[in-house]
Design a protein that fits this description.
The protein has about 425 residues and is an alpha/beta fold. It has 2 domains: about 1-175 and about 345-380, Rossmann fold (3-Layer(aba) Sandwich), CATH 3.40.50.2000; about 190-340, Glycogen Phosphorylase B (Rossmann fold, 3-Layer(aba) Sandwich), CATH 3.40.50.2000. Helices cover about 45% and strands about 20% of the residues. The chain has 15 helices and 16 strands. The chain has helices spanning about 15-30, 70-80, 95-105, 115-120, 130-145, 155, 205-215, 235-240, 255-260, 275-285, 295-300, 315-325, 330-340, 345-365, 385-415; strands spanning about 1-5, 35-40, 45, 50-55, 85, 105-110, 150, 165-170, 190-195, 220-225, 245-250, 265-270, 290, 310, 370-375, 375-380. The strands form 3 sheets. Strands 3-4-2-1-5-6-7-8 form an 8-stranded mixed beta sheet, sandwiched between helices. A 6-stranded parallel beta sheet has the order 11-10-9-12-13-14, sandwiched between helices.
């Protein structure tokens, strides 16, 4: 089977999405399938199962690039001729959907974020009702542009609860060989806390620093290691200058494992985590976690109080949960955490996704009309449907241009008023 994976916000130093895409792709290849990963890059190039499309860097200092050329996406799809398409970013569906419908190819949308919660952090000034309207609109478009939506947790699926869409739950996995408990059994002289997270607004990394300050106010002799990078890196360094916080920046997976394995607890501050790969990696290293109540990370530890506790995204609540976990015997925590992680293996996730791929490709093949032309199989497209899709694309481009002009006009008006 020829599988195309598409993702934005993907780089060699990005976090959970990159880990998920890479591990799923590796599993597909190991099972004998042909996989091409389509991602943004500094220039257009192909090779080793990867197609990079020249894309601009986002101006927010995140280091991410975003594909802006639908034509380039369609060219790559034409070249690789996939039998199923796996999309890891909702924005790309607007270009993938028309191509897939034209060729009778099924599209699977894997949702990695909760837009309703993420938007609240990126645009706190926007009225809640407006954020809700935007989120529901994007959810409806995601449903309309895909044959099936895959989520990694019940929390992740709540975004589509009103849509009536076909949604499958496929938990992700963890590399249990790379992430394993440390051989060092001696307790730490000071309480060692660790937080593995992207240093960006929606991940709420400041919560880990504030929780540390609260613990120290309560007399807990604790230190915090922040693993990860992002646009808030410099600001957080300044914010934590009076606290014993060490920033490592981006480090390799074996280095992350070593730090996690020696820590007493891991803090997972992200309120919008739809799964929590960093939390699962901590658990695999035998390190119990404190995660945000209701998030995907907190689902990992439901009913496992020795492996971790959920808490509201508040420094006092996080500190309270941390103290409760520290009262549990260290070896008990380590065994419980590892036992939870061992339920989540990448081969299970790969098998579940491949079963979905096979199901959709068979369904698609049975509903397509194929004719033989010059020895090649061609899709007998419905011409009227194709024309309708082209009109919709044209109308969407016109709306986008009008919105752009409107934004420019409002900006100029604001400048005149000031």
């Amino acid at each position: 089977m020829r599988i195309a994976q598409l993702a934005n916000f993907y780089s060699d130093t990005s976090g959970g999405l990159r880990v998920a895409v890479n591990n799923l792709g590796a599993g597909y290849r190991a099972a004998g399938h042909e996989v091409t990963l389509i991602v943004p890059g500094s220039r257009t190039r192909t090779g080793d199962g990867r197609a990079e499309i020249a894309s601009p860097m986002l101006p927010n200092g995140s280091g991410y690039r975003v594909i802006v050329s639908g034509r380039a996406v369609r060219r790559v799809l034409d070249a690789i001729d996939p039998q199923v398409i796996e999309v890891h970013d909702k924005l790309l569906l607007r270009w993938v959907n028309p191509w897939a419908r034209r060729h009778g190819i099924p599209v699977i949308a894997i949702s990695h974020e909760r837009l309703d919660i993420t938007l609240a952090h990126f645009a706190p000034w926007a009225p809640r009702r407006l954020r809700l309207v935007v989120t529901r609109s994007i959810a409806r478009r995601t449903v309309a542009r895909s044959d099936l939506i895959v989520v990694c947790s019940r929390f992740g699926g709540e975004e589509f609860a009103r849509s009536g869409a076909a949604v499958r739950l496929v938990p992700l996995g963890v590399d249990l060989e790379t992430f394993r408990p440390s051989d060092i059994a001696e307790p730490n002289a000071k309480t060692q806390l660790v937080s593995v997270t992207r240093l960006s607004t929606e991940k709420l990394p400041s919560l880990a620093i504030d929780a540390l300050a609260e613990l120290r106010r309560r007399g807990v002799d604790a230190e915090l290691t922040m693993i990860g990078t992002g646009p808030l890196h410099a600001r957080l360094r300044r914010y934590a200058q009076d606290q014993p916080v060490r920033f490592t920046g981006f480090v390799s997976a074996p280095e992350v494992s070593a730090i996690l394995g020696q820590a007493d607890l891991a803090l997972v501050p992200g309120p919008a985590e739809t799964f929590g790969l960093a939390a699962l990696e901590a658990l695999a290293c035998g390190t119990a976690i404190v995660g945000v109540l209701g998030s995907g990370a907190s689902e990992l530890i439901t009913g496992e109080p020795d492996a971790g506790l959920p808490a509201k995204p508040d420094p006092r609540e996080f500190a309270e949960a941390t103290q409760m976990l520290l009262s549990v015997d260290r070896q008990t925590r380590r065994r419980a955490a590892r036992a939870v992680a061992e339920r989540y293996r990448w081969d299970n996730a790969v098998r579940a996704m491949l079963a979905i791929h096979v199901e959709l490709t068979r369904r698609s093949s049975s509903t397509r009309t194929v004719r033989r032309v010059d020895g090649q199989d061609k899709i007998n497209d419905d011409w009227q449907r194709l024309r309708q899709e082209e009109r919709e694309e044209r109308d969407a481009r016109i709306r986008e241009e009008l919105e752009r002009v409107d934004r420019i006009s409002r900006t100029l008006s604001d400048e005149r008023d000031s």
